[in-house]
Amino acid sequence: HRDLSIELRERDVLFNELHHRVANQLHAITGALEVARRRTTDLSAHAELDKAVGRITAMIATNQQLSIEQVAREISLGAYLERLCDGLAHPDNVKIVHTIDDASVPLRVAVRLGLVVNELVTNALKHAFGGQGGCVSITFSPGLTEGILTVADNGRGMQGPRSGSSGMRLVGSLARQVGGRLEIDSSSNGTVVALHFPLPSPPAEA
User: What pTM did the predictor assign?
Assistant: First the structure.
C-alpha cells in the first residue's frame, strides 16, 4: 500500500510537469505563428496561419481543463466550449455570441467538438461576411440521448466552393469520429450548421 501511494504521487508530479510543459509549448507555437502571420504579405499564407492559430487555440482550451483524473473520465463540455468561444479571434465588425448548456462527454469527443467549432467559425469569418460584418452564433443543447452543437451566421450564405472546402471536409470527418451527423441549411440570410451527436447515458441509480 505504501509503495502504491508513492507511485501515485510520483505519477501526479510527472503528469503536472508534463501538463505544464505542453501548455508552454502550445503558447510558444501560437506566438511564433502570430509573428509569422504579421510578417507575411501573402494573403493565402496569412489565411492558413490564421487557421493554424485557431486550431492550436482549441487545443490550449482543452489542455487548460486537463487533470490526471479527467484524462480517463468525462469533462464538462459546457465549460470547455465557453472558454473556447471566448478565445476565438474575430474582426471588429463581426460579433460572436454563444449560448452553451452543459453535458459531460469523453475528452476525445470534447476535443473534436472544439475543432468543429473552430473550423465552422473560421469558415464563416472567411466567407460569410463582406465589409458590413455580421454575427456568428454558437449554441449547444443537450437532450436525453443526443446533443446538438450549432454554429450559425447571418451572412450571405454558402457559395459553391465553400461547402467542399478543406475546412468543411475536416468538419465532416470530425462529425463521423464522434458518431454524429451534420445538417446544413444555407440561404441568402445566412448559414446554419448543426451537428447532432450521441451523449453518454447517465449512470444507473443504485
Answer: 0.66
